[in-house]
């Protein structure tokens, strides 16, 4: 494999573009320079650190170490899903609903793929197991966060309609069916769009990486198709599971709406002067 | 023949309320805004958690599911809401022609767009939508507040007919003492703290 090596000089050239964008934002008072620079810095630091960690992890095949890394990735994804919610469940469920849905969907799909499709030996080989879970979680996280946010937001604003439908004798499932449908759709549209555009508009990141690293295009394509199927099913199952858990929190055993009692609204942060 | 009974019903620090409405009878309820008239109706519709017992004839509220109870003990909120684009989508079947006519509509109304309805039309259609389930008891929260004088008596007669034909009890909330005198056999006033006082 003959990858052209990237050094500190080449990367700092690329960082100039980010600095230029930040300067533009500053001059025109777009007020996006701070978050932009912080995020760019985080990318550099987090990826460098994970690079060091992965070097160590890839050199050994230790099941417990892999499990530890999986758990950290999952917890980070769960935290991210929670912090993107404007209307959250009260109590630990605010973190657990998203996290457990991603655990069930992403983990089971990862294990299936590693054992039955790619057939790595041992199945938890870190060189496969960590990047694959990373890609799955990264996408599932977006879908679950979007769907959960849409679901709780719409229920919060349309609670009177939900109550009126309950008053007409509808079940909790019927009374919230439009919101449910809209939320599942919102969660799945990004991945459906990227499957539709794959190859025509975009060369997905992993495939580009493999080609740049010197793999044949055919090999890269087959892996990419596999990944896309895994991501879309993982996102779909994760979205449905998380909304199902959320709906159970919204209604009590008598199918009354308990929105104000079991959810709370986070005041939007930002807009600080 | 089902009466509606509240037995030590309490909720949100209010009550306990004990009262009974006989089959076919209307219990008029009035009181200043904020006294908790709607809250009481919501609790009887089992939309608000409560202690004590609710009975429809021999059926206790907690013996059947929440949606089953609410299909039989139907609550008409003061403001009607619509969530689909057209009127007909809110109805499981076309309402009988006689009902439509009594409330001043024809079958065409089912194709109308909801956001072109007037407040009064919405209210009359909401009553139709509620009675489609053939409820055994009614909880009416100012059913005629948004109607003009001509429609008020139409709607009053329509509801009273329904109650008579089905021997259904009703709790009728209204700000208008004259209306309660027309429709209700018994009248109760609810005070700001939530205490009930029978008027004679």
Describe this protein's structure.
The complex is a heterodimer of chains A (273) and B (200). Chain A is built from eleven helices and two strands. With 273 residues, chain A is mostly helical. Chain A starts with 7 loop residues before the first helix and ends in an 8-residue tail after the last strand. Chain A has helices at residues 8-27, 33-59, 63-83, 93-117, 126-157, 159-167, 172-175, 177-197, 205-212, 217-250, 259-262, and strands at 87-89, 263-265. In chain A, helix 3 (63-83) packs across helix 4, helix 3 (63-83) packs parallel to helix 5 and helix 5 runs parallel beside helix 10. Chain B is of the alpha/beta class and 200 residues long. Chain B has six helices and ten strands; from the N terminus they run E-E-E-H-E-E-H-E-H-H-E-H-E-H-E-E. In chain B, strands 6-7-8-3-9-10 form a six-stranded mixed β-sheet, sandwiched between helices. In chain B, strands 2-1-4-5 form a four-stranded antiparallel β-sheet, with no helix packed on it. In chain B, helix 5 links the parallel strand 7 and strand 8. The longest helix of chain B is centred in the C-terminal third of the chain and has 18 residues, at 149-166. The mean pLDDT of chain B is 92. Classes of the chains: A mainly alpha (273), B alpha/beta (200). The interface between A and B is medium-sized, with 19 and 23 residues.
Secondary structure class of chain A reads mainly alpha
Q: Count the helices of chain B. How many?
A: 6
How large is the radius of gyration of chain A? 22 Å
Q: Main interface pair?
A: A-B, 19 and 23 residues
Topology, number of strands of chain B:
10
Question: Could you list the spans of chain B in which at least 5 consecutive residues all have pLDDT below 50?
Answer: none
The helix content of chain B, as a percent range, equals: 25-40%
Mean pLDDT of chain B: 92
């Amino acid at each position: 494999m003959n990858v052209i090596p990237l050094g500190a000089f080449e990367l700092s050239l690329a960082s100039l573009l980010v600095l230029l964008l930040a300067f533009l934002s500053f001059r025109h008072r777009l007020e996006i320079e701070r978050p932009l620079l912080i995020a760019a810095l985080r990318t550099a630091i987090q990826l460098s650190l994970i690079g060091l960690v992965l070097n160590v992890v890839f050199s050994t095949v230790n099941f417990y170490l892999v499990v530890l890394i999986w758990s950290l990735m999952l917890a980070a994804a769960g935290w991210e899903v929670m912090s993107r919610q404007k209307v959250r469940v009260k109590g630990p469920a605010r973190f657990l609903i998203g996290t457990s849905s991603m655990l069930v969907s992403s983990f089971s799909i990862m294990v299936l793929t590693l054992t039955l499709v790619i057939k790595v030996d041992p199945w938890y080989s870190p060189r496969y197991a960590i990047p694959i879970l990373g890609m799955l979680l990264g996408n599932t996280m977006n879908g679950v966060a979007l769907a959960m946010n849409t679901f709780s937001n719409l229920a919060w604003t349309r609670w009177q309609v939900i109550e009126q439908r309950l008053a007409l004798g509808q079940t909790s499932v019927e009374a919230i069916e439009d919101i449910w449908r809209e939320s599942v759709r919102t969660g799945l549209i990004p991945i459906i769009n990227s499957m539709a555009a794959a190859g025509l508009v975009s060369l997905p990141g992993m495939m580009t990486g493999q080609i740049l690293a010197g793999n044949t295009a055919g090999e890269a394509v087959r892996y990419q198709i596999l990944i896309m199927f895994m991501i879309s099913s993982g996102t779909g199952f994760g979205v449905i599971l998380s909304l199902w858990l959320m709906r159970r929190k919204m209604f009590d055993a008598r199918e009354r709406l308990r929105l104000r009692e079991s959810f709370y609204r986070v005041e939007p942060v930002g807009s600080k002067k | 023949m089902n009466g509606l009974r509240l037995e030590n019903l309490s909720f949100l620090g209010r009550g306990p309320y004990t009262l009974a409405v006989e089959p076919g009878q209307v219990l008029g309820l009035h009181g200043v805004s904020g006294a908790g008239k709607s809250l009481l109706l919501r609790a009887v519709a089992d939309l608000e958690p409560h202690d004590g017992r609710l009975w429809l004839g021999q059926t206790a509220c907690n013996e059947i599911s929440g949606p089953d109870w609410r299909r039989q003990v139907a609550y008409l909120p003061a403001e009607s809401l619509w969530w689909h684009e057209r009127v007909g989508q809110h109805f499981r079947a076309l309402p009988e022609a006689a009902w439509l006519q009594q409330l001043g509509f024809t079958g065409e109304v089912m194709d109308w767009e909801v956001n072109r309805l007037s407040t009064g039309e919405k209210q009359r259609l909401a009553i139709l939508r509620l009675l489609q389930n053939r409820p055994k008891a009614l909880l009416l929260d100012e059913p005629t507040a948004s109607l003009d004088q001509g429609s008020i008596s139409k709607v009053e007669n329509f509801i009273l007919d329904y109650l008579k034909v089905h021997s259904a009890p009703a709790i009728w909330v209204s700000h208008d003492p004259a209306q309660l005198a027309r429709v209700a056999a018994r009248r109760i006033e609810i005070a700001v703290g939530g205490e009930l006082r029978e008027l004679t």
